[in-house]
């Protein structure tokens, strides 16, 4: 399969330097974009977020957002990808290892590749379990950077407990999950953590907010506690490719009736109509 390396679409080989700042410092940003029926979903939103991440870490993008977008569309075509994801990352480039930015400006290193993946229909319909984990990340979780060690550790805990996700809490406040956003439903209304520095402003989250409006559901972008989470009528997570997954159990606590809730199912159905 082909990859994007800087501005060329070429065969995959070992071309990343040992002093790439992404490799050494996690000094870079990334995006994961879902591909449905050969089309990247919500590509503009992902590219806008990439541009924002770049700005926040003071990384100069190698080309315009439109050029990057076109390259990704070309890559999907070159790989004949129908269902799966695009992974794209941009690092601050290759230079002698000093923490500060390289003195002589070096070009960023851009890579993207695709991965074929089945749709997650079964888990979306059936739901899954989650575990709780303390949110030990830094205070700029709104930037989609390569520094994911806390997320990796949290997800590993989930997997070791046969769970799909680790739902993170900072003290008593639920923030998001290791690689997804979290919504709860209580008395017919939705609640999700506000899009501030404590969470990644998910593209799927944003779409769910829009769809909920269309379904006349009230969404409160407010913080809520671990106790609110465990006593919710419904809980679901949102992320690229996972779309919307009902959470039926958290640690040992059954959520609601232990089956996917009606509001979650409505939102899932509305989300599927975006690409079906
Ligand atoms: N993760 N929160 C975190 C910490 C995430 O890493 C992600 C996505 C999300 C959901 O964002 P979106 O709806 O834009 O995918 C929320 C991607 C999929 C990943 O790292 O693989």
UniProtKB/TrEMBL annotation:
Write down the top EC class of this protein: transferase
Catalyses: D-alanine + 2-oxoglutarate = D-glutamate + pyruvate
Q: Which InterPro entries match?
A: Aminotrans_IV, Aminotrans_IV_CS, Aminotransferase-like, BCAT-like_C, BCAT-like_N, Class-IV_PLP-Dep_Aminotrnsfr, D_amino_transT
- SUPFAM superfamilies xref list: D-aminoacid aminotransferase-like PLP-dependent enzymes
Q: Which CDD domains match?
A: D-AAT_like
- Subunit structure, interactors included: Homodimer.
Official protein name in the record: D-alanine aminotransferase
Species the sequence originates in: Lentibacillus populi
């Amino acid at each position: 399969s082909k990859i994007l390396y800087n501005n060329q679409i070429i065969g995959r080989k070992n071309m990343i330097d040992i002093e790439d700042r992404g490799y050494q410092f996690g000094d870079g940003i990334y995006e994961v974009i879902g591909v449905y029926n050969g089309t990247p979903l919500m590509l503009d939103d992902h590219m806008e977020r990439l541009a924002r991440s770049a700005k926040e870490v003071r990384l100069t993008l190698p080309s315009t957002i439109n050029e990057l977008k076109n390259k990704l569309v070309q890559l999907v075509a070159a790989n004949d990808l129908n269902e799966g994801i695009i992974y794209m990352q941009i690092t601050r480039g290759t230079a002698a290892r000093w923490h500060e930015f390289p003195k002589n400006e070096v070009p960023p290193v851009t890579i993207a590749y695709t991965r074929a993946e089945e749709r997650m229909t079964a888990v979306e319909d059936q739901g899954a379990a989650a575990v709780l984990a303390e949110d030990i990340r830094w205070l700029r979780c709104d930037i989609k950077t390569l520094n994911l060690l806390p997320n990796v550790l949290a997800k590993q805990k989930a997997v070791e407990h046969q769970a799909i996700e680790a739902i993170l809490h900072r003290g008593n406040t639920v923030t998001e999950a290791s690689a997804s956003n979290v919504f709860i439903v209580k008395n017919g209304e939705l609640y999700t953590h506000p899009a501030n520095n404590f969470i990644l402003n998910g593209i799927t989250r944003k779409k769910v907010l829009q769809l909920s409006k269309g379904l006349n559901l009230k969404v409160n972008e407010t913080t809520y506690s671990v106790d609110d989470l465990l006593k919710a009528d419904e809980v679901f997570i949102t992320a690229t490719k996972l779309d919307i997954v009902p959470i039926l159990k958290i640690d040992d606590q059954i959520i609601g009736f232990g089956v996917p809730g009606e509001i979650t199912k409505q939102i899932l159905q509305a989300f599927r109509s975006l690409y079906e």
